[in-house]
TrEMBL record:
GO cellular component: membrane
TM stretches of this protein: 48-68, 88-119, 131-152, 164-186, 198-219, 505-523
InterPro entries named among the record's database cross-references: GP_PDE_dom, PLC-like_Pdiesterase_TIM-brl
Subcellular location per the Swiss-Prot or TrEMBL entry: Membrane
Chief place where the protein resides: membrane
Domain of life: Eukaryota
A biological-process GO annotation: lipid metabolic process
Family to which the UniProt record says this protein belongs: Belongs to the glycerophosphoryl diester phosphodiesterase family.
Keywords: Glycoprotein, Hydrolase, Membrane, Transmembrane, Transmembrane helix
Topology within the bilayer: Multi-pass membrane protein
Record SUPFAM superfamilies: PLC-like phosphodiesterases (SSF51695)
PROSITE patterns: GP_PDE (PS51704)
Protein name: GDPD5 protein
Gene it is expressed from: Gdpd5_0
Length: 524
């Protein structure tokens, strides 16, 4: 009789058993404890831990969003890691995968908890899931702190991303509030005191009202009237097409030209015997086989090698081995063979290639180190190559270096002089500046418009992602430097472009549908 009475207290509910099994690791039949009206949904220890579960979810969501939007700069992060660790690895992709896995895990735990609460069951999170929650919490906090300390500009990227994603994040947040209305309504109705009902419903309604009104403060240059969008920005290949070929090689620049790029960007160093060549890094170890050919000179400054020595190095095999970008496409057999046979490229050859295809050129110039023969005459040597050896038409050269600019203007008046930072319009005009070359994190549609009124165009670097290119297009940028000419060339209009009327319809319709659904849930 006692056994029968005990068994009668166990309910056979497969759905709840499944929820409890995943959440509490209780797969055997056990006596479940339902939450009585007016009682807490769980024991005190579980009550204290539930906010940690919500906090882990929120922080992991924030970090996953931030890191996902930072895809534009993954190569910079990997390059930074390479400079500190000494070997190349796609750490950015690993972090993205780990963040996605941990967010998925904590989201499932939170969904299970909400379902159990909706069914009136008391919560009991298994100790292994508690350890997992602390792991997600610790990982998210550590990564957010590291981002703030080591990569402060990334926060600017996130703020820019809101100008594109905010309307859609708003819809997602409203959808979550609609889903939460069921457990909120259930526990508010079951509460036996008015005070508890106010405590439950009050914060929920406050957040909901905030979400309803937040679009009033949203701004996006891509929400604009028809016919006000400017021309598509010109595309300048950053070190060529580094996702299709080894950076700063002839193959890389030819790939940019093949895919319709409007200009070429590179980095210039001078060899010990005075030959300007293309190299971004201070040393040769990342982008050549110097470790194999000259193992004792791996860490030597690239400018301290003679041109004859540099010509013996291979500048392409590393590309196939290290795969420097997280989302590179596969190369054809012909491209692989071509990449394996690339060598260090001379500045004069680069300029002749650009001139023959009528492409703009812009480059960073690196001053040679101490005791270099051209330490004090490096500008003169580079000007000699541009004006006398290459034969490039001066108007194709965007001169960026700010050293002895007045001298450069006197010997090469046809150059398009470019400044690498913002300045008052009067100062720019006084120095005959016709273009600004700015980091994309300094993007401002107001500043771009102000400079354009003075016939000063703006180039933004390095813009790789379609959403960021769309934002630059809507902001009025004249050109962008990019690693992905082959992708951005195919965009016929900015992503997420809409008129104010379309946005208002989307906003009002979302709010009205959510109010209707939430009202029905509370009424039922």
């Amino acid at each position: 009789v006692v056994r029968r009475r005990l068994l009668q207290r166990y309910e056979h509910q497969p759905f709840i058993s499944c929820l409890a099994g995943f959440y509490s690791c209780r797969w055997k039949r056990y006596q479940r404890q339902r939450t009585e009206p007016g009682k807490c949904c769980c024991k005190m220890r579980e009550c204290l831990f539930f906010p940690l579960l919500i906090g882990a979810f929120c922080l992991s969501l924030v970090f996953l969003y931030m890191w996902g939007e930072g895809k534009n700069d993954y190569n910079n992060f990997d390059w930074y890691s390479y400079g500190n660790l000494g070997f190349w690895f796609l750490w950015s992709l690993v972090i993205l995968i780990v963040a996605a896995i941990l967010f998925t895990y904590i989201s499932l735990l939170l969904v299970l908890a909400m379902c159990l609460l909706a069914e009136g069951q008391q919560l009991y999170l298994h100790w292994s899931h508690k350890i997992g929650t602390f792991l997600v919490l610790g990982f998210s906090i550590a990564c957010l702190f590291a981002l703030g300390a080591l990569w402060g500009d990334h926060w600017k990227t996130v703020r820019l991303s809101f100008q594109i994603t905010a309307p859609y994040l708003h819809i997602g947040a409203i959808a979550i509030m609609v889903l939460l209305s069921w457990p909120v309504a259930l526990h508010a109705i079951r509460a036996d005191k008015k005070v508890i009902q106010v405590v439950i419903i009050g914060p929920y309604l406050a957040i909901l009202l905030f979400l309803f009104l937040i679009p009033l403060g949203m701004y996006s240059p891509c929400i604009r009237e028809m016919g006000t969008l400017g021309p598509k920005p010109a595309l300048i290949g950053h070190r060529g097409a580094p996702m299709l070929a080894p950076e700063n090689t002839e193959m890389s620049f030819r790939k940019t030209i093949e895919h319709g790029g409007d200009g070429l960007e590179t980095d210039v160093t001078i060899s010990y015997d005075g030959v300007p060549f293309l190299m971004h890094d201070t040393t040769l170890k990342r982008t050549t086989n110097v470790k194999e050919v000259y193992p004792n000179e791996t860490d030597q400054n690239a400018a301290l090698f003679s041109w004859d020595t540099l010509q013996k190095l291979n500048a392409g095999t590393w590309f196939l081995k290290d795969k420097p970008f997280s989302f590179m496409g596969s190369l054809s057999k012909a491209d692989q063979n071509q990449a394996m046979n690339q060598s260090i490229y001379k500045l004069s050859d680069f300029l002749r290639l650009a001139d023959s295809h009528n492409k703009l050129v812009i480059f960073d110039l690196y001053r040679p180190p101490e005791k270099h023969p051209y330490r004090n005459s490096w500008i003169n040597r580079i000007l000699a190559v541009i004006l006398k050896e290459s034969g490039i038409r001066p108007h194709l050269v965007l001169w960026l270096n700010n050293n002895v600019r007045s001298f450069v203007q006197s010997v090469a008046p046809g150059f398009q002089h470019t400044m690498g930072s913002k300045a008052p319009v009067e100062d720019l005009l006084k120095n005959n500046i016709v273009k600004l070359n700015l980091a994309y994190t300094d993007m401002s549609s107001e500043d771009i418009r102000k400079y354009a009124e003075a016939n000063i165009t703006t180039n933004l670097y390095v813009v790789n992602e379609p959403w960021l290119f769309s934002l630059a297009w809507c902001a009025g940028a004249h050109s962008v430097t990019t690693n992905t000419v082959h992708l951005l060339k195919n965009l016929s209009q900015p992503l997420f472009l809409m008129t104010p009327q379309q946005y208002n319809i989307m906003w009002i319709l979302t709010d009205m549908v959510s109010v209707l659904l939430i009202s029905l849930i509370f009424a039922l």
